Amino acid sequence: MKTRKILSILIIAVLFMGCSSDSSSDGGIIVGGPTNGGDDGDGTGGGTTPEYLQDFTNFPMGNIVSAFKLSSTSSANVDFREVLLNDYNSITAENDMKMANIFTSAGNYDFSDGDAIVAYAKANGLRVHGHALVWHSSVPGWLNSFSGTNEEFEALIEAYVKATVSHFAIEKDANGNSIVASWDVVNEYFDGGSIRSSIFQQKIGDDFIDKAFQWAREADTDVKLFYNDYNIAGEPNKRNLIINKVNSMISNSVPIDGIGMQMHLNHNWPTSDLPLAIQQITDTSLLVHISELDVKANYGNDVTELTATRAQEQADQYQNASYHYTNIVPTAQQYGITIWGVRDQDSWLYDGGGDWPLLYNNDYSTKIAYDSFIDGLKGNP
């Protein structure tokens, strides 16, 4: 079994004892890697050594983590880390680096979970994408009930953004680059065809997005700053609002480096709008990050299990996403693809077993979508 990163002696020992033999003759599951058992070097399969997702790209391949999963000694989380280090070289904190987890009270911050994630990334040569500084769905309770003036509220948010970005700029790799290379500064500013009504919009104003990006840049002159949103592919009117806003930010010298296209897709949606959306976001000349990719297989609740037909439709949609990103976005603008979870049961869309949105089954074996995703990365439509 190929291991891409150097783990601690203890973890290596656990993996060695817990994993099946490299040979598939005993019927053991290979954790991660193509379902055909590997590649013989020509990309067609048939070999004995698995090749992993990050082998097929020149851009970062990411997934989500938590501080708990990175430290837990349970067999499931040991397997999780093995898949993570085999297939991925970029990580995003699913929840641990959001405001609700960090901003404990006025002027006080708990960075411990994020620090654990950064330490793990540094030890294993991973990039960290910060997620997310300002999001309407991750506001701590004490801040939601804040009774001070709007000016005082804005001062709190400014201090929080600057403290968080500057804190996570400290830890560097061997080349002097921050482990946290980027941030989703504002997440989901728009709601359909209008600016979302949120506590930030109500107390600071519509321009809170511009201020948040400016505060983040003042805290770190080098970190890449992203705007992140869902249904950029699939809702053309919303996409146009985002593009217009981003272009306005650029014209007014508001610092922004990239756009995160979340890409929470369905097995049959979107279709023709998917490549069009990627092209139009690319046309902004900013970095493009597929930031939260998953594909619902049971959006209409019309199946009770992942049938062969539905699994193939899901696989085709994963292939569409990887193919169009790889072929439309110029290399200089490819910030990477981040998949929003590893095995199905850990997905926010799992719904108690009613959907199967990710690339791995619950035992960490790969689905056919894994191989189709690789086909798209290789340029096969």
TrEMBL record:
<keyword id="KW-0378">Hydrolase</keyword>
<keyword id="KW-0326">Glycosidase</keyword>
<dbReference type="InterPro" id="IPR001000">
    <property type="entry name" value="GH10_dom"/>
</dbReference>
<keyword id="KW-0858">Xylan degradation</keyword>
<dbReference type="Pfam" id="PF00331">
    <property type="entry name" value="Glyco_hydro_10"/>
</dbReference>
<feature type="domain" description="GH10">
    <location>
        <begin position="72"/>
        <end position="376"/>
    </location>
</feature>
<feature type="signal peptide">
    <location>
        <begin position="1"/>
        <end position="25"/>
    </location>
</feature>
<dbReference type="InterPro" id="IPR017853">
    <property type="entry name" value="GH"/>
</dbReference>
<protein>
    <recommendedName>
        <fullName>Beta-xylanase</fullName>
        <ecNumber>3.2.1.8</ecNumber>
    </recommendedName>
</protein>
<dbReference type="GO" id="GO:0045493">
    <property type="term" value="P:xylan catabolic process"/>
</dbReference>
<keyword id="KW-0624">Polysaccharide degradation</keyword>
<dbReference type="InterPro" id="IPR044846">
    <property type="entry name" value="GH10"/>
</dbReference>
<keyword id="KW-0732">Signal</keyword>
<dbReference type="GO" id="GO:0031176">
    <property type="term" value="F:endo-1,4-beta-xylanase activity"/>
</dbReference>
<keyword id="KW-0119">Carbohydrate metabolism</keyword>
<comment type="similarity">
    <text>Belongs to the glycosyl hydrolase 10 (cellulase F) family.</text>
</comment>
